[in-house]
Every structure is written in C-alpha cells, then in structure tokens.
C-alpha cells in the first residue's frame, strides 16, 4: 500500500513539474500581452506607398519619416589591440550599419511614441518602454543609440564623426536589422550619399494585435508580401 502511495505521489509531483515547465515555456514564448495598434514599414518610397495602399481600409492616419543607411567597415582587433587574422591569412573585417535620422525627425518620433528603450538596462531583461527624451538633442552633437559599445565610430565620406552616447534605443518594438540608430544634424545627414528611404507609421483605424502572437505578425507579413517592404516593425500609439 505504501508503495502505491509513493507511486501516486511521485506521479502527482511529476505532473506538477510538467505543468510548471509548460507554464514557464508558455510565459517565455508568449509572456504578458504586448499590444500594438500600429505598424512601421520601411524601405524605398515606392514600396512603402504600396504598403500604405494595402492598409488604406484600416488606417486611422499615416506619417512618414526619412532616413539613410551608413555602412562602415573596420578591422577586428583582439584584446591587445592587434588586428585579428583568419585561417585564410586575411585580416578579419567587421561591418557596422547605422540607420541615420535628423534631430527634427527624432523629435517627431518622440512625440509620435515610436521610439523605445530598454526598461532596465544591464539587467538582461528585454522589456522595453517608450523613450521620452533625448539629452543633447538641441546641441551640435551626433548621438549614437546602439548597444553599450560606447566606443563605436561613425565615418561619413571618409570623415570621422564624433559620437555622443545616448542609450540603447531604437524605432519600433524591435531594434532595426538595418542598423543602430544615429541622430544627427541636417548638414551631416545631407552629406550622406546613400539613397534616402522612408519609415511610415500606419496606425490602425480599428483593432489591436499582440506582439507575442506569431499569427498576428505572420498575417501582417503575408499581407505586405507583395509590397517588397525592407522591414516591418510595430508600435503602440496612444494618441
């Protein structure tokens, strides 16, 4: 009888552990709802306009922001500052990409609630919150909003641009795959030779979706598949 009781107890404990693990996995994969009522679509103007046309029946309003991409290549250094060499005997190069906007554009994005930052930097958490202010926005400094590598360098037309570190922040819910965010003055922005592109904020006229729901994101992706959008991001705009 005692053996049966121990067996039943063992099964019960195992069942509770399984349920606990399942709940933990569910929380990790889904977590608390992260609602969004807007999308941010970026790329060439023609393609972005196609995306806006696709969503015209569920658009409360749309707003465009201009940006350019800067790509810098630098040599990878080891801990002693020496250039690292690969197995093929060639120097290892690292490509750094930056998504550059003007300070006026950054101010508009702040007002429009599309810039986000880490809620607890250094904690390892991926939770974010709205970015509410940008120190030095009204100075002549170019501000870097990438990861905490505060020694990051920016070169435009073979000219080194001094960077002021802001915070680890970005446009939309996810950091852009196009590059780390840079905010600069109009003159520096105009000197960038890359073709100007567009990020368009589209606020839904009706309904909210959940960022943790893969079906919601897949639905948007499929809907925009013919528009050749460079990147899709998300925002929750309460205005």
From TrEMBL:
Pfam families: Lipoprotein_22 (PF17294)
Identification of the protein by name: Lipoprotein
InterPro entries listed in its UniProt record: Lipoprotein_22_bac
Listed Gene3D superfamilies: 2.40.40.60
């Amino acid at each position: 009888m005692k053996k049966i009781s121990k067996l039943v107890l063992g099964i019960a404990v195992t069942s509770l552990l399984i349920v606990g693990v399942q709940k933990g996995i569910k929380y990790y994969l889904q977590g608390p709802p992260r609602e969004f009522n807007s999308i941010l679509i970026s790329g060439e103007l023609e393609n972005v306009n196609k995306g806006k046309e696709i969503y015209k029946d569920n658009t409360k309003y749309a707003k465009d922001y201009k940006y350019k991409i800067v790509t810098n290549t630098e040599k990878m250094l080891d801990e002693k500052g020496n250039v690292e060499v690969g197995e093929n005997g060639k120097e290892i190069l690292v490509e750094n990409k930056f998504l550059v906007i003007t300070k006026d554009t950054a101010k508009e994005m702040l007002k429009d609630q599309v810039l986000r930052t880490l809620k607890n930097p250094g904690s390892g958490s991926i939770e974010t919150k709205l970015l509410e202010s940008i120190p030095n926005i009204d100075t002549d400094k170019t501000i870097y909003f990438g990861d905490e590598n505060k020694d990051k360098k920016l070169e435009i037309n073979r000219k080194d641009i001094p960077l002021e570190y802001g915070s680890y922040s970005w446009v939309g819910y996810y950091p852009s795959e196009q590059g780390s965010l840079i905010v600069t003055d109009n003159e520096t922005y105009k000197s960038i030779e890359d073709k100007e592109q567009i990020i368009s904020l589209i606020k839904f006229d009706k309904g909210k979706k959940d960022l943790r729901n893969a079906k919601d994101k897949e639905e948007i992706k499929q809907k925009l598949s013919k528009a050749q959008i460079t990147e899709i991001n998300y925002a929750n705009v309460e205005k």
